[in-house]
């Protein structure tokens, strides 16, 4: 299951970076998920919540930030947001396009309880 391995990955990132004391204070984990990853948000949240049960991070909430698919056309230079999975320029119809965003799958921010500042996670 795609979502389960992503949830495991997100948790292992947090485990890698924080001490057990810090893990107990994790309030939320913000993840950026590009539309191209084809992730079901409900399913990912379910897996995440199941995995953190009875762990030090069991109070943590996952916050999903959805990143739309953006394509840049190499023919006319247009950058457009793509709703479906059709990879042609919506302006001129060219298929010479590059993906600008939509491939993201990263932990962008972890928020702690009793902590005024958020800690950035650097990959
Ligand atoms: Zn174009």
Folded structure, characterized:
Helix content is 27%, strand content 33%. It is an alpha+beta fold. The protein has a domain of 78 residues: 2-Layer Sandwich (hypothetical protein PF0899 fold), CATH 3.30.2320. The strands form two sheets. The protein has a four-stranded mixed sheet. A three-stranded antiparallel sheet has the order 4-3-5, with no helix packed on it. Helix 1 packs across helix 3. The two termini are 24 Å apart. The model has no long low-confidence stretch (mean pLDDT 89). Zinc ion binds next to loops.
Report the bound ligands by name, code or SMILES: zinc ion
Oligomer: single chain
The appropriate CATH architecture of the domain at 2-68 and 102-112 is: 2-Layer Sandwich
Strand order of the largest sheet: 2-1-6-7
- The fold-level CATH name of the domain at 2-68 and 102-112 is hypothetical protein PF0899 fold
The coarse overall form would be elongated
User: Could you list the spans in which at least 5 consecutive residues all have pLDDT below 50?
Assistant: none
Strand and helix order:
HHEHEEEEEE
Helical segment count? 3
Overall strand count = 7
- β content, as a range? 25-35%
How many strands, what sense, and barrel or not for the largest sheet?
Answer: 4 strands, mixed
Supply the helix-strand structural class.
alpha+beta
Global Rg: 18 Å
Separation, N- and C-terminal Cα atoms = 24 Å
Task: Looking at this protein, list some descriptive labels.
123 residues, alpha+beta, hypothetical protein PF0899 fold, four-stranded mixed β-sheet, three-stranded antiparallel β-sheet, 33% strand, elongated, binds zinc ion
């Amino acid at each position: 299951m795609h979502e389960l391995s992503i949830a495991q990955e997100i948790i292992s990132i947090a485990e890698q970076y924080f001490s057990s004391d810090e893990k107990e204070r994790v309030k939320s984990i913000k993840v950026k998920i590009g539309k191209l990853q084809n992730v079901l948000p409900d399913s990912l949240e379910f897996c995440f919540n199941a995995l953190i049960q009875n762990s030090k991070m069991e109070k943590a909430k996952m916050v999903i930030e959805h990143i739309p698919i953006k394509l840049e056309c190499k023919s006319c230079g247009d950058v457009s947001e793509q709703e479906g999975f059709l990879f042609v320029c919506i302006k001129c119809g060219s298929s010479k396009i590059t993906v600008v965003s939509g491939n993201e799958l990263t932990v962008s921010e972890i928020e702690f309880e009793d902590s005024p500042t958020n800690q950035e996670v650097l990959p």
